Amino acid sequence: MINSDSNNCNTLKMKKLIITLLLGSCLLLSEAQNKVYLNADSAKTKISKHIYGHFAEHVGGNIYGGMYVGEENTTIPHTNGVRNDVIKALQDLHIPNLRWPGGCFADTYHWKDAIGQKSERKPIENMSWGNYREDNSFGTNEFLNLCELLGAEPYLAVNMNSGTVQEAVEWVQYANHANGTSYLTDLRKKNGRDTPWKVTFWGIGNESWDCGGHMTADYYINLYKRYATAMTSYFNSENLFRIAVGPGFPDYDWTETIMRDVPARRIEGLSIHHYAVNWDHKSSSYEFNDEEYYTTMKSAWFMDEFITKNCEVMDKYDPEKRVALIVDEWGGWYDPIPNVKGALYQQNTIRDALIAGLTLNIFNNHADRVRMANLAQTVNALQSVILTQDEKMILTPTYHVMEMYKVHQDALLVPANVISEDVVRNDKKLQALSVSASIDESGKMHISLTNIDNKNNQKVEIEIEGYTPKNVTGRMLTSTKIQDHNTFDSPEKVVPSDFNETKLSKNNLIINMPPNSVVVLELDK
Ligand code: AHR
What we know:
Bound molecules: alpha-L-arabinofuranose
Radius of gyration: 24 Å
Shape: globular
Strand order of the largest sheet: 2-5-8-9-10-11-12-13
Number of helices: 11
């Protein structure tokens, strides 16, 4: 295929003007440094839409002063106190699930303090994130109603450190049991909600090896079993999906202990956390140098190894892959911008777009075991998809990547074999290219690619077996500098554009990706 197209180029050599016009595509054909082999015949594993989930902890300006502006004393258009622009933006993402109320915060949170008449709710001191007082006006009803509005499944994090088993059991009854069955369901009715919300996802503890109680794995497991047993009836008739705490560092012994010692019928998911961060030197979220950039990207790439090694342990005890691996906290973590929106407020640049694209490709490619993930976090905290300032709201580069990648939700993974150039900077050697692909219900194939090289284009030759595309279109997110980002004065500096650097010839596709770019291709048969 390449030869025949090269011949075409040769015959055009005389015609200088045409040569100039075609030079780009000749180069495309002869110099692809990267090769991707896709096998559509092996597309069998579903990429769970829940990989595209989000996380809304009570931290900084994420809930209060972020998505939630309250029902009174605000001129910002809202529905039940939640900003309409935020609701619309999240709906446009097809947000599949939302984790709440933490994080570390969850292990200090008592859900009963935040139900009923707002004026009578007991406030909470947010001891995890700055000791400020929250009036608890955004509680269980508000969160679960918001999820309904978003069309997202709620994922509740149970307080295992300072809470009780009884509190957790009653939370399940309040949220899930049929009207009239208990004092808790009467209470729900009194609080304006007749029918249960039917919450499926329940996290039991959070980082129990750290802020969640500094427990050993053995201690955690005994406690976990008490919660996981009491929260369900003997036959687990509520169909709860119970998620145990896994490691947040390469502590595979923790994973081993859980998988070995928790009875199979008491666990549906194991959560791991990994941030793209250099804990010794976090760096500014928008004024960083090349060294800091590649350090972050190295940490982002570590996600692949972290998942692979956890999967190896899980496969030993659960070869049928019944227990899902849930990456319920991931994203870039930098120095907070001082005096803005409280703890963990950071800007979001092209670096974050690349972290998102790369990480989602990793998740997709592990779809057989990774069946849920939650980007940390949603609004004004860590790698947010949305930033707000008074009545203004902006979408971050990460938002645009999540939006471009939503085509993979519930599609069938097309296994990809990738031969990539390396980016070599100082002591770091990183794979420049990441790729994942899927086929959706309508038969369209989507291929998402990231080029983390911030200096060089990457030409990529993609060979597709078992699928002959007739047409290809593409979208791209990039900008001149990796530090580029959107601001309230310039909200559209970084937005997706059409990507046309493609050359399709039967089952062979050649593309040319600019430096620091995220590309999503759509192929039609
Ligand atoms: O997302 C911020 C914090 O990071 C969470 O509260 C905690 O679980 C993790 O350490």
